[in-house]
Structure formats: C-alpha cells, structure tokens
Amino acid sequence: MPDKSSSSLDDFEATLKNGAVDLLNCIEVGNYSNAIQIIQELSDARHKSFYNEVGNLTRSLHNAIKEFKVDSVDVELTGTDEPENGSKITDASDRLNYVVEMTSNAANKTMDMVDSSVPVASELQKQAKELRKDWGRLIQRDLSPEEFRQLYKRIDVFLSYADDSATTLHTNLNTILLEQGYQDLTGQVITKVNSLIRDVEEKLVHLVAVAGRIDSISGIEHDLSLKEEDDTRGHGPAIKNDNNPEVLNSQDEVDDLLSSLGF
Amino acid sequence: MKILIVDDFSTMRRIIKNLLRDLGFTNTVEADDGTTALPILQAGTIDFLVTDWNMPGMTGIELLRAVRADDKLKTIPVLMVTAEAKRDQIISAAQAGVNGYVVKPFTAVALKEKIEKIFERIDAGK
C-alpha cells in the first residue's frame, strides 16, 4: 500500500480502488491480518487526503474571497470597521439611483411640455374652427359688410396667434427632443453596472465551485428544490418572455385569458 | 365620479391622470401604495379605483382583496394597470374580483376600452 503524499481526490480514489482489490484478495486467501492492515492504511489515506483537500480548499476559498472584493463581504472578512468608501457595489447602486432620478426627471419634463402644448393646440383648433365657419359664409357671400370687417380683424388676430402658437409648440417639441438625451446617459451607466454584475457573477461562480468541492469531500447534500415564487409581491415587467408560457405577452393575451375565465 | 389612482411611480400616476382627464374624468386623487390608498378609500368619496400591482408596502392585489373584504368598499370597481403579466397573477386578480386588467406598457385606447367596458357592465347590472 503506497503512502502517497499527493492530496488530490483522484489519487485517493485510485488508492481506494487498489486497496479494495488487495483487500478482497487477502480475504479470499484468508489472510485477515493483512486485510486489517489494508483497512487501516485506507483509513489513514482517507484522513490524509481529507486534511490535504481541506487545506487546498481553504487556500482556494481565501483567494476566491480576496478576488470577490465587494462591500460588506470584504469588510466582514477583514474585520475592519471602517466603511469601504466608494466600493463598486455602493457606486453601482448610486449610479442606478441616478438612472431612476434622471428617467423620472425626463418623464416629468416631457409631460410638462405636453401639458403646456395641449391647451395651445386646443385653442388654435377652436379659433380656426370658428373662423372657418365665417370664412365659409364669406365664400357663400353670406356676410354683411359689418361682419366682414369683424372677420377681417379676427383673421389678423388669428394669424398672429397662430404664429406665436407655432413658436411655442416648436420650442416645446424641441425641449421634448432634448430631454430624450437621458437615454444616452442612463444607457452608459446601465452598461457599466451591467459589466460589474457580470464580473461579480463570474467571481461568485468561482466561489460556488470551491464550495461545491467542499461538499463533495465532506458529503454534505443541499436541498436544491426551488423556492416557490411569491406572486403577491409582484415581479416587475417581464423581459424576454417569449419562451415562458406562464407570462402573457400582450393585452390581447390577457383579454383572452380573462374572457376564458368568464370576464 | 372621483377616481383614485394608486401607483408608486409619480410619472405613471401622472400619465394615467392625464389620460383619464382626456376621457373626461377630471376628479382624481393619488396614492403611492395600498397602505396610503386604504384610508382615502375608507373616507368614502371614491367611485373608481385604478391600481398598480407591484408597490412597496401594501401591493395592489392586497389592496384589491382588502377592498373586496370591506363591506363599505366592496362594490367599488377596480381596474389594475400593471406590468405583472404572469398567468397565475391574472387569474388570482380575477378571483380576487378585479373588474379590468391592463398590462403596461399600455395605450390610451386600451385604457379607455377597459374603463368603458367596466361602466357598461355596471350599467347593465343596474
């Protein structure tokens, strides 16, 4: 029974295999003292391999955690009480708050512009309708000279109002256009945060892989059953839901479902 | 006709408020989740409730259930306007007694259609 100093699980498995064959042979020929000896050696090898593996894992785990330098994880493991100023996650969270703020500002500004444009358009329409009525009578030669003079003045007033209104609407539309610049700025922020998330995920996967090896030598099994999702709290907008039959993709599908329920 | 609009995002409340105004409903009040909406409803002047689902504190589905469980409020028509589009969620909203369900993003036409349909039903039931 070779006493290998190698620590890998593979080596231990090979040792175990060979030992088992030797053990069987010894038992078959009735050499029990040798058999006991082999069992003892296998047990020692298992302990040795176990301790070596734990040593390796501790080192891997330490490295993985060192790589995974974020926020509370870092603070907790190094045991320092000083807050990590400008950690990536805090920064990302601030950046996302900025996106929320910026999209909200843009939406409000756009709605302000719509709110101030709607009455202008309505007034323009109202005045044009009234003028058109009298203009029609003019064409029909149905206007008295006094009414004609009134119309003459009103057209002048209307043209000046139309000019001013068009300027107002133009300015408002331009403001709305410029407000859409939020998409560029928030897009950049989201792209940055996205790459951070991928980075963190990669490191987490590494941590999980290390943890998985710990499970395999210690024989710990986890309950992998998925937690039931709680619909009450809501999930937010569904994204890329073409492949999920549980998520409806349009108002029409919702209407169909409701009508199938007797709505 | 006084309408209560419940949504945690002020921009969405504003959009709905403007659309309702275009439909001729000018008397609206706002709340940002179920917890703030309930006292307004219990004050007794609301004729119609438009609510989001996903909100901090009390959610829209919880608000709907609370309304239906309250003897004074249970007849108020409730329209859900929400991004929640899971089959099970729509079914549970229907079971909880929702009167209409509009998924975000929605159009002015869809909102108008659902509101009109709700009133048609109410009139037919009278």
What are the defining features of this structure?
heterodimer; A: 263 residues; mainly alpha; 7 helices; 75% helix; elongated; disordered N terminus; B: 126 residues; alpha/beta; Rossmann fold; five-stranded parallel β-sheet; 5 helices; 17% strand; globular
| Whole-number mean pLDDT of chain A | 81
CATH topology of chain B: Rossmann fold
What does the radius of gyration of chain B come to? Answer: 13 Å
Query: Can you say what the CATH homologous superfamily of chain B is?
Result: Response regulator
Low-confidence stretches of chain A: 1-7, 71-84
- What form of chain B results from the Cα inertia axes? globular
Roughly how many Å is the radius of gyration of chain A?
39 Å
Element order of chain B: H for helix, E for strand:
EHEHEHEHEH
Order of helices and strands of chain A: HHHHHHH
**What proportion of the residues of chain A is helical, as a percent range?**
over 70%
The CATH architecture of chain B can be given as 3-Layer(aba) Sandwich
Shape of chain A: elongated
The quaternary organization reads as heterodimer
Pfam family, one (chain A): CheZ
Region (Disordered) (chain A): 228-249
Family (chain A): Belongs to the CheZ family.
Keywords (chain A): Chemotaxis, Cytoplasm, Flagellar rotation, Hydrolase, Protein phosphatase
Structure notes:
With 263 residues, chain A is mainly alpha-helical. Among the domains of chain A are: 9-67; 88-209. Chain A contains seven helices and no strands. In chain A, helix 1 runs antiparallel to helix 2 (32-67) and helix 2 runs antiparallel to helix 6. Chain A starts with 8 loop residues before the first helix and ends with a helix. Residues 1-7 and 71-84 of chain A have low confidence and may be disordered. In chain B, strands 2-1-3-4-5 form a five-stranded parallel beta sheet, with helices on both faces. The two termini of chain B are 17 Å apart. The A-B interface holds A 104, 107-108, 111, 114-115, 231-238, 241, 245-251, 254, 257-258, 261, 263 and B 9-11, 14-15, 18, 53-55, 59-62, 82-92, 94, 101-104, 106, 110.
